[in-house]
Design goal:
The chain has 201 residues and is mainly alpha-helical. InterPro entries: DUF2637. This is DUF2637 domain-containing protein.
Length: 201
């Protein structure tokens, strides 16, 4: 119960920000669409399409990270879609602004806040807290150290793969055996076996 309460306190403010910012950006998009010929339900449809496209693209970016597709290059289809959705949302917000500096800044705030909220939620989903994994990984690490490489626990291998992917995304180069060993807190032999498994996967 305490874990769920902590998770709610952790993600709750971000969710509230996402809803409020999304609503503000949504309104500006709908008004812009209505002023340019997309009247009635079509103005609502345009706003829904743009905002949901941003959310969907952010989720696809997260899925690409989990499946190691980001190694193909930083510019992927979800990144392009997310960039296009943000550009359309920001353009609609600016179109509704007063032609002043503060008018542009305040009008762009909902789109910027919506983007920040989505990126935070994406980041937290891609890097979950290790509390749920730690109890399962400790006995599996002990078992893996005493058995051949082929007997490595799948959960341990998956966790090591996520650590390696996060390291490469952050530093731009593959993780080393020593860095993986230090991060996981395992023996040198187990780290070597894990790296060999990751390279051959």
């Amino acid at each position: 119960m305490r874990r769920y309460a902590c998770r709610l306190l952790d993600t709750g403010p971000v969710m509230v920000l996402a809803v409020i910012a999304g609503a503000g950006s949504f309104t500006h998009i709908r008004d812009t669409a209505s002023q340019h010929g997309q009247t009635g339900w079509m103005s609502w449809a345009v706003a829904v399409c743009i905002d949901l496209t941003c959310v969907m693209a952010a989720r696809e970016r997260q899925r690409d990270k989990k499946t190691s597709r980001t190694r193909r290059g930083p510019i992927t289809w979800p990144v392009l879609v997310l960039t296009g959705g943000i550009a359309l949302s920001l353009a609609a917000n600016l179109a509704q602004a007063d032609p002043t500096i503060w008018g542009w800044i305040t009008a762009a705030t909902p789109a910027a806040a919506f983007l920040i909220a989505i990126s935070m939620l994406e980041r937290r989903a891609a890097n979950p807290t290790p509390t749920a994994e730690t109890p399962e990984l400790v006995p599996q690490q002990t078992q893996a150290e005493d058995e051949p490489t082929k007997a490595l626990a799948p959960a341990l291998v998956d966790y090591a793969r996520r650590v390696a992917d996060d390291h490469e995304a952050k530093h731009g180069k593959p993780i080393t055996d020593d860095a993986l060993r230090a991060h996981l807190g395992v023996s040198s032999q187990l780290a070597t076996d894990l790296m060999r498994t990751l390279r051959t996967a």
